[in-house]
Amino acid sequence: MKQAFIYDAIRTPFGKFGGGLATVRPDDLAASVVRAVVERAPGLEPGRIDEVIFGNANGAGEENRNVARMATLLAGLPTSVPGTTVNRLCGSSLDAAMIGSRQINTDEADLLLVGGVESMSRAPWVLPKTERPYPAGDLALASTTLGWRLVNPQMPAVWTVSLGEATEQLRQRHGITRERQDAFAAASHTLADKAWRDGHYDNLVVPVQGSTLTRDESIRPASTSEVLAGLKTVFRPVADGPEGGTVTAGNASPLNDGASAAWIGSEAGGELLGLPPLARIAGRGAAALEPQFFGFAPVAAANQALQRAGITWADVAAVELNEAFAAQTLACIDAWGIDEGMVNAWGGALAIGHPLGASGVRILGTLGRRLQLSGQRWGVAAICIGVGQGLAVVLENVAATTN
Which one is catalytic: 189, 200, 332, 354? Predict the structure, then answer.
């Protein structure tokens, strides 16, 4: 079986909702990272790309009509390069990378460009079609920015609670306190700010044409546990006992805009790129559970990926776990029984942001660069997904196997 490697990974700065990237269409965001990652392989003949696979969670606005294909055309790639778009909500771009790696393993391809994009700022409101013409009553617009919309009435109500309420239920089940959530969120901002100042993102983040944004816009270096403790809860009122609310805007990931891209290839694909491998994709996992406990799904997904890679948590040195909420991140860390210090050492989504379709390749690329810098061998990238799913990938630092 051919081995699948990551050869390079990039992303845009992640903009705030309504912020520095809000004027950029999602198909243009996607095209910007396609163009940039191709430019970082100057010896590549673009016509040798077997396929472009992009993740996107919305698909209802300007990214419609298969944003992967739109991005390749807008970026100036040959019209002969095919493209497909994957939607597994928050896990969409990680799914794109996993799909691409399978194509390498099965010898269907040698070089794939994978990634993801989301503009939560530009996600449209939608109006459902009426069942008969000229209805007398009112119709409500539904926002497609985040979460459930146009819910099927046959879906059990317990499954369709908001993501925030679902997180309250999860932290209640696993005993995650408000204090731990706020402390973890504050640390995410501190670590992200330090990583930027230390230059760790210099080789990972590329600018977007027409935007002056050069750094992730949601990072707040002054965040502390004490500051976050003063924020109001959003989904439940504060009250004594486990029923009281704990989830706030400070310990939940913000709404963001951004895109990410990576090269996945065989050894022959690396020769086409003229690049050394960054890491080998050694194991993959997908898991599902009750929709309201979506935040816990990475636990089983990562355990499955580790088993398939032939290693255990004792071998793992670095973890990139997408921080949808502090509570779900902590619940996963506790379940794995790992050192919190190995998780998101360069900050996580609570600070950096979570543009849904782009986040999976963000964590995958960050993990690869962390392993490269540290010289450590094994890492895990994992992400929770709305409606009760999780994905995970095990990376092996190729350089660490030859030292």
Answer: 354
Give residue 134's pLDDT.
87
pLDDT value, residue 402: 63
**Could you please report the per-residue DSSP string of 46-105?**
GGG--EEEEE-S--SSTTTTTHHHHHHHHTT--TTS-EEEE-BTBTHHHHHHHHHHHHHH
CA distance linking residue 285 with residue 307, whole number of Å? 9
pTM: 0.96
CA angle, 166 then 186 then 375, to 5°: 100
Per-residue pLDDT, 221? 95
- 81 in Cβ contact with 24 (< 8 Å): no
Which residues, in sequence order, are CB contacts of 318 under 8 Å at separation 6+? 342, 345, 367, 370, 371, 374, 376, 378, 379, 380
Instruction: Report all structural domains of the chain as residue ranges with CATH numbers, in order of start.
Output: 5-123+254-397 (3.40.47.10)
Residue from 90, 189, 200, 332 carrying the catalytic annotation:
90
φ, ψ (nearest 5 deg) of residue 68? -60, -45
332 is catalytic: no
Q: How far apart are CA 235 and CA 36, in angstroms?
A: 40
Q: How far is CA 176 from the centre of its chain?
A: 23
Q: Please, are residues 96 and 54 in contact by the beta-carbon 8 Å criterion?
A: yes
d(CA 111, CA 52): 9
State the Cα–Cα distance between residues 115 and 74, nearest whole angstrom: 15
| Tokens encoding 264 | 């996945």
Residues in the chain with pLDDT values less than 70: 240, 402-403
